[in-house]
């Protein structure tokens, strides 16, 4: 509950699990919050005032809806371009003109270059680990080329890999409040470049035509346009995550649940937990076929607790990410990545869920609406062409490129 918040493992001696004792009741834990110092905020303002190519990255834990609103106030007052760290895309409304993309796996190369050439980099909350820094390539260590302002709640992380120009140990809520209250600086030196960065983001997320009868870009566009603003999107790990990760427009705080550790099977149980916690919200889980089969049995839990989630299984008959790397490194030498899957809609119905099959893009909307109308947990199996290994390339193209090396 303090510092860098997150789950912990608690080990108890065996006798604590069996002995009964009388103890006084404790009050609920009250987390401690740290504020940025006045001098730190003054230095931040001076640094921004002298910038020509500033950029902000949001991420990490400890955020609230109010903190996100305060950061938006700060970003808009200073006309800053803002990005979000890997799978923290719900910290800033992706539809707003200051949002210029996400930083992590499959980062837009143009955005990566903007980060490398930024003169002031304001990292609010992210740990700046491997995912956020593209394998530690976006910043130099130990001293970045950019003047780094690093805001973290846990002091032990500050300066551990990258030595910041201004280290600020503060909780997200308190820093955001101070940032929103800060007098804005003159942004005329970079204001025009924000529109250019936004245009690059829109081009990066524009429609992609892929092999096969199902076009996943159209599916993502329909979901972005038709889901309620508070809908929760979850996913596990795999190449299929490129579609919600890159093309869905996350509108606000706590609309994205996804693992930063690359854990397969996460999406379904995360969706069930979210639906139980927030039964009034639409919850959609994305899973690949291999990813789904690691936790698909949890449909029984969804039925037991009336958690009417909708699972979209992107079925290409393989472990797509591993196959992609096989083709890149050992073209044509496929081993252990092909899958013989069940009929996922029939599998869902066996649990008492609704089940749908989508083999053409035009079938998706009606299938989704039937799932919603059923009031049950539901699975939509989307059968995609195996060639559509990523939004950018095909298996044949990967193999051909690797064979020339």
Verbal overview:
It is a single chain. With 405 residues, this protein is of the alpha/beta class. It has 14 helices and 12 strands. It has helices at 38-49, 65-77, 109-117, 172-181, 191-204, 216-226, 242-247, 267-277, 289-292, 299-304, 320-329, 344-350, 364-374, 395-403, and strands at 54-58, 82-85, 99-103, 120-124, 147-152, 166-169, 232-235, 256-257, 283-288, 310-315, 354-358, 378-383. Strands 3-2-1-4-5-6 form a 6-stranded parallel β-sheet, with helices on both faces. The longest helix is centred in the middle third of the chain and has 14 residues, at 191-204.
Provide a concise account of the structure shown.
With 405 residues, this protein is α/β, with parallel strands linked by helices. It is built from 14 helices and twelve strands.
Major sheet characteristics: 6 strands, parallel
Strand content: 5-15%
Taken in chain order, the helices and strands follow as HEHEEHEEEHHHEHEHEHHEHHEHEH
Runs in which pLDDT lies below 50 for 5 or more consecutive residues are: none
Q: Which descriptor suits the 3D outline? A: globular
Radius of gyration in whole Å, from Cα? Answer: 23 Å
Give the assembly state of these chains: single chain
Helix segment tally: 14
Structural class: alpha/beta
Total strands: 12
How helix-rich are the residues, as a percent range?
Answer: 25-40%
Q: Enumerate the strands of the largest sheet in spatial order, edge to edge or round the barrel.
A: 3-2-1-4-5-6
> Termini distance?
50 Å
Mean pLDDT: 95
Task: Fill in the keyword field for this structure.
six-stranded parallel beta sheet; single chain; 12 strands; 14 helices; 405 residues; alpha/beta
């Amino acid at each position: 509950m303090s510092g860098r918040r997150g789950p912990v493992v608690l080990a108890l001696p065996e006798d604590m699990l069996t002995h009964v004792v009388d103890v006084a009741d404790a009050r609920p834990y009250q987390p401690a919050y740290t504020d940025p110092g006045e001098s730190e905020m003054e230095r931040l303002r001076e640094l921004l005032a002298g910038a020509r190519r500033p950029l902000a990255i949001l991420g990490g834990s400890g955020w609230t809806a109010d903190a996100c609103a305060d950061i938006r106030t700060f970003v808009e007052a200073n006309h800053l371009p803002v990005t979000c760290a890997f799978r923290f895309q719900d910290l800033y409304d992706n539809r707003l003109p200051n949002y210029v993309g996400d930083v992590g796996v499959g980062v837009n190369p143009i955005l990566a270059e903007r980060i490398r050439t930024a003169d002031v980099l304001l990292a609010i909350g992210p740990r700046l680990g491997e995912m956020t820094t593209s394998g530690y390539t976006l910043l130099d260590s130990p001293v970045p080329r950019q003047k780094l302002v690093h805001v973290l709640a846990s002091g032990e992380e500050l300066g551990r890999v990258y030595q910041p120009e201004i280290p600020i140990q503060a909780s997200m809520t308190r820093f955001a409040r101070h940032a929103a209250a800060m007098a804005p600086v003159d942004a005329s030196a970079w204001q025009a470049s924000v529109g250019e960065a936004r245009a690059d983001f829109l081009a990066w997320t524009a429609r992609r035509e892929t092999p096969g009868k199902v076009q996943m870009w159209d599916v993502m566009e329909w979901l972005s346009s038709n889901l309620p603003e508070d809908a929760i999107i979850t996913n596990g790990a795999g190449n299929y995550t490129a579609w919600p990760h890159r093309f869905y427009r996350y509108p606000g705080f706590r609309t994205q649940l996804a693992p930063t550790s690359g854990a397969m099977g996460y999406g379904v149980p995360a969706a069930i937990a979210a639906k139980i916690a927030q039964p009034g919200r639409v919850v959609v889980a994305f899973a690949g076929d291999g990813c789904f089969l690691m936790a698909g049995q949890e449909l029984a839990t969804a039925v037991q607790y009336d958690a009417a989630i909708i699972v979209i299984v992107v079925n290409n008959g393989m472990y797509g990410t591993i196959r992609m790397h096989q083709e890149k490194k050992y073209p044509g030498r496929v081993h252990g990545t092909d899958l013989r899957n069940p009929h996922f809609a029939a599998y869902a119905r066996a649990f008492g869920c609704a089940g749908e099959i989508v083999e053409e893009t035009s079938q998706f909307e009606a299938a989704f609406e039937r799932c919603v109308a059923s009031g049950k947990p539901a699975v939509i199996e989307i059968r995609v062409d195996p060639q559509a290994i990523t939004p950018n390339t095909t298996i044949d193209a990967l193999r051909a490129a690797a064979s020339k090396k």
